[in-house]
Amino acid sequence: xxxTEQPANADEHADLWLDPGxxxxxxxxxxxxxxxxxxxxxQLQRDAGLSMIEYMTMAMLCDAPDLTLRxxxxxxxxxxSLSRLSHLVKRLETRGYVRREPDPADGRFTNAxxxxxxxxxxxxxxxxxxxxxxRLVVDNxxxxxxxxxxxxxxxxxxxxxxx
Length: 163
Prior knowledge:
The protein is 63% helix and 8% strand. With 163 residues, the chain is mostly helical. It has a single domain (47-161), classed as Winged helix-like DNA-binding domain superfamily/Winged helix DNA-binding domain (Arc Repressor Mutant, subunit A). The protein has a three-stranded antiparallel beta sheet. Helix 1 packs antiparallel against helix 5 and helix 3 (71-78) crosses helix 4. It starts with 19 loop residues before the first helix and ends with a helix. Pfam families: MarR_2 (PF12802).
C-alpha cells in the first residue's frame, strides 16, 4: 500500500507497512525497474533493431565457448522461460544471427549457436549500447556504490529464484 492511509485493523498489521524511508526507497526502485529497461530497450531498438532480450541472448552467446550454449542454460541466464526463448531464437534465426542444433554431447538438448552475422551485429551494436549503459548507470555512481548495487541486485534475484 503506497498511501499513508491504513485500514481500520492497521494496528494488528503494523509490521506489514513500509515506514516512510522504506516507502521512498521502494518507490524509487520501482521507478528504476520500469524506466531503465524501457530506456535500454528503446536505445537498442533505435540503434540496432534489437530488443533488450535479443541483445542479452546474443551477448551470452558471444561470451560462451564456441559461441554456443544449451537453450536451457541460455533461458536461465537471460531469465526467460524456455518457451519464450525458443520464440526469440526463432526470430534471431530468421535474421541469420543464430542457429539451433542438437547438442552433440546429449541429443536430448538443443544448443543455440551465434553465427558470423550475429557476431558482426554484436560487434556493431555493443559500443553504442555500452556507452548508453555507462551514461545512464555506470558513470552515474561511484565505483564502490555501483559494485554494491550489483551485489544487492544479486541478493534480491537469489531470493526471487529461491537460492
